[in-house]
Amino acid sequence: MAESGDPTSDTINALMAEDRVFPPPDSFKNDALVTGTFLYDEASQDDEAFWARQAAELVDWDTEWDTILDWQLPDAKWFVGGTLNVAHNCLDRHVAAGRGDKVAIHWEGEPGDTRTITYAELLEEVCRFANALKGLGVEAGDRINIYLPMIPEAAVAMLACARIGAVHSVVFGGFSSQSLADRINDAEAKVLITADGGYRRGAVFPLKPAADEAIAETPSIEHVVVVQRGGNDVDMVDGRDHWYHELIGGASSECPAEPFDAEHLLFLLYTSGTTGRPKGIMHTTGGYLTHVTYTHKYVFDLHPETDVYWCTADVGWITGHSYIVYGPLSNGATQVMYEGVPNYPGNDRFWEIVAKYGVTIFYTAPTAIRTFMKWGDAEPAKHDLSSLRVLGTVGEPINPEAWMWYHEHIGGGRCPIVDTWWQTETGGMMISPLPGATTTKPGSATFPLPGVRAEIVDDDANRIDVGGGYLTLTRPWPGMLRGIWGDPQRFRDTYWSRFPDRYFAGDGAKLDDDGYLWLLGRVDDVMNVSGHRISTTEVESALVSHPSVAEAAVVGATDDTTGQAIFAYVILRGDSDADEDVLRAHVAEEIGAIAKPKRIFLTPDLPKTRSGKIMRRLLRDVAEGRNIGDTTTLADASIVDELQARATSSDD
Ligand code: 7RM
Hints:
The chain is an alpha/beta fold. Helices cover 32% and strands 23% of the residues. Helix 16 links the parallel strand 19 and strand 20.
């Protein structure tokens, strides 16, 4: 942790080399929205004018803005003076254009039940629920918490808030009642929208009981709305708790979409980060909608008439907000929404869904791809995946071997892969290929999107043109966070103070000789071995490039001689049997002796956040023999105990 703020340490070493390249296939380019460099050229001439063109072309405004950008670091206002309604943009305008019968959501429940919802139906339900919220006393600016499974009502609830100017704060359904209570209290939310329960791995997981526990300590909550999904028994408190179906049954389907200011607060989304209290990241209306509509259209080369899009994220994360709800619906896309886990009832559930709906654009996380690799090539091979034409990834660096596996076994060797780097804070994608324009390299997120400016800098904020350093953004962008709820000082300190005049993302990255960007993980995770800064990502990718390895997590643990020593935790693929020595030698060959792990532990699992990111902080605690710290954001805490037991037993 100390290195990231230490101005004397050298920059992150760039060690691994990747020379495979994948130009967009000609057949793809023939129908692609963007080929060549025109979009990049336009944006580099005048980025504000570029974003203004996107805003005008892709979004419906009630009032034109008079100023594109008012920028007083760290405070940005985009499209000043403009007004619009986000729900109108996601629903009404498509219905008005005659596309009311187009499917908005093909919903697939985990047990196999399904719902098909058209744009006209979604609009009607959003209007009814918006009226129901008004009936509960909700007004523009009020905060509403949403704690739901992956059911269509989650999107309805978000859009109903947007329609009436209420601010939603979605808490992932896998979070505990305590996490929910903390987030409700920080936002002082007035209404909580939850469900009796949802389906996960073949069973109903109860949500309402957790919600009840939370609201016992949240004085601001006046009403609770409960969607019936799990069918499990719940307690309903008279006057406070209301069934969703009863509320919408009694509500009018007429609800005008009032215009709101471009800078009206659209939502809060709490991000835990690695340390400290969760931050309520603030996103506003006009700039955010412009950013997610633009990126969803061009990064996925969306042809809304023919494409079937599927993003496997949960609506509780920013990926679900931007690329399940707002981006796709604003673009009038048809999408698949799936409630459950990828291995119910079998390890091929995702591929069955792709084949069933003819999914053409598929967006998932590297952690999922590595899991699929572990489950073996036979699972996707059971299904016809030939409808797919664009694949995407988000959330972590994708190891080159995982990229290759995705390309071959899911994409059939024909689909461009867009590795999209962005954050809760950026609102939308920032660094990514454009599938018809960019020659990709496995493991590289390639270049900043048109309109985005990124630079790698060293500790003294000098720009680096080749090599490793800190990833910074040098220009404001429309989807950028507008602050941390209730904590402007923390906003400034976290993102705008490390380097003057730029946003610091907290990630390390390197630029190769061709100008390609390679994300190297959070700078807090960078290791320092005998004075060499080595990225955890590169050592992990070297390990994953061994045919026996499915997944690897690497950390630096304090070492008397080398400062830090590299410890690796490795999950082997299916029935492979590589041992520690073979894998250490493999890393030495791929990167060099300096990057050879001191110890490699074979493990059946790794500690991950609920959104699937490896929690290296905990592995560092294990490696250094400490009592492990805060595990509240962990998806499955038992693996840490197991790793600790192994560390102790292998010490003697
Ligand atoms: C969208 C999301 C943000 C952090 C970010 C990175 C990491 C995300 C990539 C990536 C390498 C990528 N929001 N990250 N995408 N690293 N390549 N394509 O994940 O707020 O939850 O996380 O995730 O470290 O800073 S997030």
